[in-house]
Amino acid sequence: MANEVVLLDFWPSPFGMRLRIALAEKGIEYEYKDEDLRNKSPLLLQMNPVHKKIPVLIHNGKPVCESLVALQYIDEVWNDKAPLLPSDSYLRAQARFWADFVDKKIYDIGRKLWTTKGEEHDAASKEFLDCIGVLEGELEDKPFFGGETLGFVDVALIPFYSWFLVYEKFGNFSVEAEHPKFIAWVKRCMEKESVSKSLPEQEKVYDFVALMRKKFGIE
Known about the structure:
Blueprint: E1 5-9, H1 14-26, E2 31-34, H2 42-47, E3 56-59, E4 62-65, H3 67-77, H4 89-115, H5 118-139, H6 152-157, H7 164-171, H8 175-178, H9 180-190, H10 193-196, H11 202-216
Parallel strand pairs: 1-2
Antiparallel strand pairs: 1-3, 3-4
Helix pairs in contact: 1-3, 4-5, 4-7
């Protein structure tokens, strides 16, 4: 069967970065289409008519939407190389739990750091660092969340590192000062070409956010 893979994405999206990393880990060639989210393409609207969001993985003409769903799909379809989810059912459930934690916490709290002010902003700064502390506790002394190799949780979480300059500047904190073990994990992930080449420069993301703040009138 032919493997025609297309990724509909938007370059600063940490959710799209997950799929870029996974496809690179698996050695899968694909066509990358960067979307203009203010003027969504007919292909995006056709492939994700429910949410109309990126990323969308299109495999042989069939769309798979939502990043964690697509991440599992990639791991199941191309299961002969670089497995992301463990074979043990309990460990798989735990990996899904922590990936869900990342989805429910990191993105939303991180967004508050550059879109809110006052008490809400101060609370978000504290909550963000608390979440990193919880994740650091789960990591313990393992090289990766998945154990000895890059796994499902690592791939779900590491894309947010490209946003850390945004979070730290607007949150007025240093993750490394507060949670050095977490940043040591980041550095291990970034040693992998599949990760480092899939994440945009932090400065580029910061400039994008600065532009968005101007557009939204947030100063």
